[in-house]
Amino acid sequence: MNGMHMVDLDLNLLRVFDALHELRSVTRAAGRLGLTQSAISHALGRLRTALDDPLFHRSAGGLQPTARALEIAPGIREGLGQIRGALAPSLFDPAKAERQFAIGAASYFCTILIPDLLARARTVAPGINFLVVNPLPDMLAALDEGTVDLVVGAFGKVPARFLCEPLYREELVWIASRNHPMIDDPFFARRIVEQPRLEIIAGRPTSGGGAYASAGGLEWRVTTDSGRSSDRRIGVYDAGAAVRLVSQTDLVARVPRQLAMRAADPVNLAIIEGAPRTEQVGMSMVSHLRLASDAGLSWLRALIFDTLPLVLKDVDAD
Questions:
Q1: CA 261 to CA 240: how far, in whole Å?
Q2: Bridge pairing between strands 162-177 and 252-256
Q3: Strands (E), the chain
Q4: What is the reported pLDDT for 90?
Q5: What is the SS3 assignment for 72?
Q6: pTM (2 decimals)?
Q7: Pair 200, 253: CB distance under 8 Å
Q8: What pLDDT is recorded for position 69?
Q9: 187: closest CA among 260, 271, 270, 274?
Q10: Which segments of the chain have a pLDDT < 70?
């Protein structure tokens, strides 16, 4: 080797290598580690000298690792994980802890879960603060960079570097205003797909009739209904907006049952049971595997699991 010896490699250089290998970007690595891009480039230069290998080549798709970088990456990641585990506090006392958690949650979970979660947390962990953020458009980068601790939603493909924990299965149901002109027709449920309808339009369609909005590589399930029984369709951006608009029009829509059940009493809304094209959707919680030993995040994930039975109605747990 030229220059420094292997024994001169310090922990910070290994952290830089691990971030560059995962993120394939000097800019993102700098953001995650709290360093300047110049510092990242300097550290990469030292690594190249120490290991006598370029390690990464620039391409249109970002940094591409060399064969040597691919060879050493798993061992470096495992070693860094062991060090983090050894240095992490063995206990997390929510009653005394002072910390902020950032949760990615769309309007659905802000209605179903977040209010009760925050209420419980304020009781048992008064020093914990929360930031609830919109999960799009680039939640994957936010999880990678640590600006978001976890995200809840309905997902398609989840990259292997994340922990995806099933929460429960939700049903998509048809809704209509209680003043709909056909609400008392005994054949309304059977003919609901023929009615003028409001669609939740987001993401790209899939063969299963749903859709996934790409969140920087994390596929986010949305409730788009792509049936063609009626050409009389109007689009809206999310299920919460659909519930509000359907209650005041003669349109119908397909939305998550939990959301519809909470809206049925305060607004003029009916769930149309027995209608075709109902569908089960899996809801999950996603966090980064590198934080698996984080006692505080483990507490938050457990609190979410403990809160769900208190807020859900008539669902199948995963």
A1: 12
A2: antiparallel
A3: 56-59, 62-65, 99-105, 128-133, 150-153, 162-177, 197-200, 204-205, 211-215, 218-222, 233-236, 252-256, 269-272, 279-288, 316-317
A4: 62
A5: helix
A6: 0.68
A7: yes
A8: 93
A9: 274
A10: 1-9, 84-90, 136-137, 202-233, 264-267, 278, 314-318
Helices H / strands E in the chain, number of each? 10, 15
Q: What is the pLDDT of residue 74?
A: 86
Question: Which pLDDT does position 293 carry in this prediction?
Answer: 82
How far apart are alpha carbons 129 and 103 in whole angstroms?
A: 11
Which residue shows structure tokens 């949650």?
A: 105
Asked if residue 99 lies in contact with residue 138, where contact means CB atoms within 8 angstroms, the answer is no
Give the bridge partners for 150, in sequence order: 103, 287
What three-state secondary structure class fits 290? helix
Task: Determine the pLDDT at residue 155.
Answer: 84
Residues pairing with 100 in the sheet:
129
Euclidean distance between CA atoms 14 and 208, whole angstroms: 43
d(CA 134, CA 95): 28
User: Token pair for residue 299?
Assistant: 């507490």
β-strands 197-200, 233-236: how paired?
parallel
